[in-house]
Amino acid sequence: MNLSRFSLEGKVAIVTGGSRGIGYASALAMADAGAHVVVSSRKIADLERVAEEIRVKGVKGMAVAAHNAKIDDSRALVEKVVKEFGRIDILVNNAGTNPYYGTLLEQDEKTYDITMNVNLKGMFFLSQLAAKVMIPQGGGSIINTSSIGGLRAGELGIYCVTKAGVVMLTKVMAKEWGPYNIRVNAIAPGIIKTRLSEALWKDPEVSRKAVSRIPLQRLGEPDELAGAVVFLASDAGSYITGETLVVDGGRVHDEPSWREQP
Q: With a threshold of 0.85, does the pTM exceed it?
């Protein structure tokens, strides 16, 4: 196989939630593959460090502060990228939040709205803005971060609902924008060691219980998602659209079978 098909040389990518975790790892991986990368999140100080790491790799890196749930911020982000680079080839919708851990019976309107706005509404409108840039240039690739929580009912309530929405949004966008050569796919991580999931892995007992349910018997690292992002963004994934790639150590298939008990 010609491994150059994994190259992103000369492409321009935007990564939301790019200051840490999966977004950070994905931004650096795409830079390694040759892309110029714009990282975005709410705090510019965190982003500047990442942009400098990107530039060290010999490509252009740019930091733009933008709140994913605010459409005006997303519009300004797209305008800045187009002004600087003239195009957008890749959008990684990675920004996400889960401000509430508890039952649906106790969920309040404020945390419901925050979760919906960041995880779903913001993703939709930024994708729409990016697609309008991609269409006249001949296409592009959009990659959305969902979760295995969007594929199976879990304990994270409205977060799971938003991530299920991401899976369907990915399919609908792929179907509508395919004729414009815009591919839209999603990744569905399991429990990855990021700040968002700290409550699920920093507690030793909670972590032990989680690991026991994963066939690979360990939690994931952000770098283990980055390869999937590069693949879906590159020509190596040129005939894939509307799909959700699960990266979870096998958790979605339930706990290991025929395992020896300690």
A: yes
Domains along the chain with CATH numbers: 3-248 (3.40.50.720)
- pLDDT number for residue 199: 63
159 labelled catalytic: yes
List strand residue ranges (DSSP E) for the chain, in order: 12-16, 36-41, 61-65, 90-93, 140-145, 182-189, 244-247
Among the options 101, 159, 180, 239, which is catalytic?
159
Low-confidence residues in the chain, pLDDT < 50: 262
Alpha carbon of 65 to those of 17, 38, 80, 122, 151: distances in Å? 10, 10, 11, 14, 31
Q: Are 149 and 156 in contact (CB under 8 A)?
A: yes
pLDDT, tens digit (0-9, with 9 covering 90-100), for 58-90:
999 999 999 999 999 999 999 999 999 999 999
Which residues lie closer than 8 Å to 77 by C-beta, 6 or more apart?
14, 38, 40, 64, 66, 126
